[in-house]
Write a structure and sequence with these properties.
The protein contains 26 helices and 20 strands. It is an alpha/beta fold. β8 and β9 form a beta hairpin. α13 runs antiparallel to α15, α18 packs parallel to α19 and α21 packs antiparallel against α22. The longest helix is centred in the middle third of the chain and has 27 residues.
Length: 752
């Protein structure tokens, strides 16, 4: 600040970080998503483009060297979707803890949190049943509380979808504020004078609940922040995030001449790095240098609310249908029930949304009735059990302890039934995730994912003896016509039957797949979003014939299964898999109670994953052949490069790339620094003969990044990290270098 008496301008920049639940509800794996290349799924890609770079936002000098790293989360107001945090926590726990701990640190130091809760799996609350609204809000709040260790002041409403009934629930839960668009408020009046005023952005209003006679209930209220629509639009869809100077100047121009010293912008968090490349760098430079030039101080909304109380009351807009409004639909909430052209891109028919909403609404009513009917037979209070199931999902209480508190009779049959009922309700909620309706067609992966959760919930319900549920569901889906009639995508029913149901498998197949995948990844243990798998014992009968012993733990349910597995992949056209449940045995695969699993009974995506890992292993086993090929062609070129021409050059490049890829993957799997030495030696050999062979980056490497990060943060010394970085720099392994630089930064902090 140039003058200590000069007015402070406050900036609250709210970032909504969210991804829908993506895991297959049968396997716990996020199936390969080809549209996310070079990464294996969209969570991974967006995390590397946005969520992680904002945690370590670089500031560079004129040479392109990193001179500072800024945690952008320290300067913004934000929410993180629970289903996204689950993924980060599972695959990148080091980054997850940094997000959590940075929020805790700010809360401890200032008394105010920059983070708020989010509706659990991003359903459109005004379209949910009353019970599901309660579930979504309760799970979202308690998920936040369990992660951060304190109760949230605010909550992000999915798509900012709101009506008065939603606000009443939030008041019941003691939520202090929500964030909405200006057009979601119909009218405002001065608290002091009672006179009507103009609805303005960048203000905090207060909304009061009213009794049956429309009288204000003074002790039932919630604050509503209205974000700056014009500025938020520029941040989201225009180019002001390309340069920190432009970004900061644009913000500075929004402040008024009177007492208007507060600006609130709200946007999808993915704007900063994913939608707009390098916008994370714009934020870091703005927060550190540029905003100060305009006397702009970043502030979180809890802190602002503690200093400035609302001066105006607000009344919500009811929307065109009287059921609510949102920030991403100009027609209230029709984008998620049908009746508007939002997201049609000017060419697509969006009437399919009617059929999809009809199907999921009907299913929700049916499954809700089943839960109520079956739940009252075993739970002391089915509604309390459903609400408190979040404690199990967050692993704050074991499933056994949860049942001890909630079951009427603690029998094995009731245990199994409780597990099924709660999973049924969880996946029914997941089937209503907003992304299923948001885009241009019912065939998209987001809608298929919702159908997958619906299918899982239906299969559980029908296991109780209720028949015809799936038939009723698909008959309604059939009304939802796709814009793409090819490839079995004519309508919702065809998509469900051709693209959802054929990716399901029974328990034996799932267990075999998860254990074999863990084995082929050459890891002692592996965890996804539903299961932990541990390889306890492995015997190689031959190179391509293995039997091993595994333990699978269904994380939420404390359900452990011990499995003996025989796996023969000598002939890829005739892969043999035999299972036997129980304690470890030798030669179990010849016994009568062993179960043969046909390889073709694995789903198409499972087979794809297994074949990919098998080919990777066979490539690694050919390391001696690759080394011999590299040495031979290297020797020839070293003797007389001009004699043989480009053909020999191409041969050496091939062996260099194949061998280098094996060394990198072996290093990522084992952490053995000797493979770094092997890489350096190859690079040095080519340098000696002035031979240029660029390493062609393999996407197989990206899957192994979580294991590299774990070792960087926990095992390697600072000197090791610098050595790794030098080697990776020579190979231009930029995604891996990103993690290496982050670890070096943290190690430097520890040294200081």
């Amino acid at each position: 600040m140039n003058d200590k008496n000069e007015k402070v301008n406050y900036l609250a920049l709210h970032a909504h970080f969210y991804q829908p639940p993506r895991e297959n509800p049968f396997t716990g794996e996020i199936d390969y998503e080809s549209s996310a290349k070079p990464y294996d799924n969209w969570n991974h890609r967006i995390a590397m483009e946005c969520y992680f770079p904002n945690l370590y936002a670089r500031i560079f000098d004129e040479k392109g060297d990193i001179i500072e790293m800024i945690n952008n989360y320290d300067y913004i107001n934000f929410d993180f979707g629970p289903t996204l945090l689950n993924w980060i926590e599972t695959y990148y726990p080091e980054y997850y803890l940094k997000i959590i701990n940075s929020v805790k640190k700010i809360k401890d130091e200032t008394g105010f949190s920059p983070a708020i809760a989010q509706v659990y799996n991003h359903t459109i609350l005004p379209l949910d049943s009353f019970e599901n609204r309660i579930t979504q809000v309760h799970w979202g709040i308690m998920d936040f509380n369990h992660r951060f260790g304190f109760y949230p002041d605010g909550i992000w409403l999915s798509e900012a979808a709101v009506n008065e009934d939603v606000l009443r629930i939030l008041i019941d839960y003691r939520i202090k504020y929500v964030i909405l668009a200006p057009y979601q408020v119909a009218s405002v009046r001065s608290i002091k004078t009672g006179k009507n005023d103009t609805v303005k952005a960048n203000r905090c209003y207060i909304w009061y609940d009213r009794d049956g006679k429309k009288n204000k209930i003074s002790n039932r209220s919630i604050n509503i922040f209205l974000y700056d629509g014009e500025l938020s639009k520029k941040i989201s869809f225009e180019n002001i995030t390309f340069k920190s100077e432009l970004f900061s100047k644009e913000i500075s121009m929004r402040y008024g001449t009177d007492n208007e010293n507060f600006i609130l912008a709200a946007t999808d968090g993915e704007t900063f790095g994913h939608h707009h490349k390098f916008a994370d760098l714009t934020l870091s430079h703005s927060f550190k240098y540029e905003l100060k030039k305009f006397n702009i101080k970043p502030i979180n909304l809890s802190s602002y609310l503690s200093m400035f109380r609302p001066e105006f009351e607000a009344e919500l807009s009811a929307g065109p249908d009287g059921d609510g409004t949102s920030w991403s639909c100009a027609h209230g909430i029709r984008r998620w029930k049908g009746g508007c052209n939002c997201g049609d891109e000017g060419i697509y028919d969006t009437s399919w949304r009617f059929g999809l909403r009809a199907a999921t609404r009907w299913l929700g009513e049916v499954l809700g009735d089943i839960y109520g009917e079956e739940g009252k037979k075993i739970f002391k209070d089915p509604l309390i059990a459903k609400k408190n199931y979040i404690d199990v999902m967050r692993r704050k209480i074991s499933f056994n302890d949860f049942l001890a508190e909630n079951l009427i009779d603690k029998t094995d049959a009731n245990y199994d039934k409780a597990k099924k009922l709660l999973l049924m309700i969880k996946y029914q909620n997941f089937s209503n995730t907003s992304c299923g309706w948001f885009f241009n067609d019912i065939s998209r992966i987001e809608t298929q994912q919702n159908m997958r959760y619906a299918s899982k919930a239906i299969s559980i319900a029908e296991s109780f003896g209720y028949r015809g549920i799936e038939k009723g569901f698909v008959s309604l889906l059939e009304m939802a016509k796709s814009n793409f009639s090819f490839k079995g995508m004519g309508n919702g029913r065809e998509i469900y039957e051709n693209y959802v149901k054929n990716e399901e498998a029974d328990k034996n197949v799932i267990d075999a797949y998860l254990c074999i995948k863990t084995l082929l990844m050459e890891l002692p243990d592996y965890q996804n979003l539903l299961y932990k798998i541990k390889i306890d014992n492995k015997t190689e009968i031959s190179d391509d014939e293995i039997y091993f012993y595994s333990v699978i733990d269904e994380i939420e349910m404390c359900d452990e299964r011990k499995i003996n597995i025989y796996f023969n992949f000598k002939n890829l056209d005739d892969i043999k898999i035999i299972l036997k449940y129980g304690d470890m045995e030798q030669d179990f695969y010849n016994k009568n109670d062993a179960v043969k699993v046909e390889f073709n009974s694995l789903t198409r995506k499972m087979r794809f994953e297994i074949f990919k890992l098998l080919l990777l292993i066979r490539r690694q086993k050919n390391i001696d052949t690759l080394k011999e090929g590299f040495d031979n062609f290297y020797s020839i070129i070293r003797l007389d490069r001009n004699l043989y021409g480009e053909e020999i050059d191409d041969d050496l490049k091939y062996y260099y790339n194949q061998l280098m890829n094996v060394y990198i993957i072996k290093f990522l799997k084992t952490g053995d620094m000797s493979f770094i030495n092997d890489m350096d030696e190859m690079i040095s050999l080519l340098k000696d003969i002035d031979f240029k062979a660029d390493y062609n980056f393999s996407s197989d490497i990206l899957i192994m990044m979580p294991y590299l990060l774990k070792r960087l943060f926990n095992d390697y010394s600072y000197d090791d990290i610098i050595k790794i970085k030098k080697t990776f720099n020579k190979l231009n392994l930029s995604p891996l270098i990103f993690h290496v630089d982050n670890a070096a930064f943290e190690k430097n902090l520890l040294k200081a």
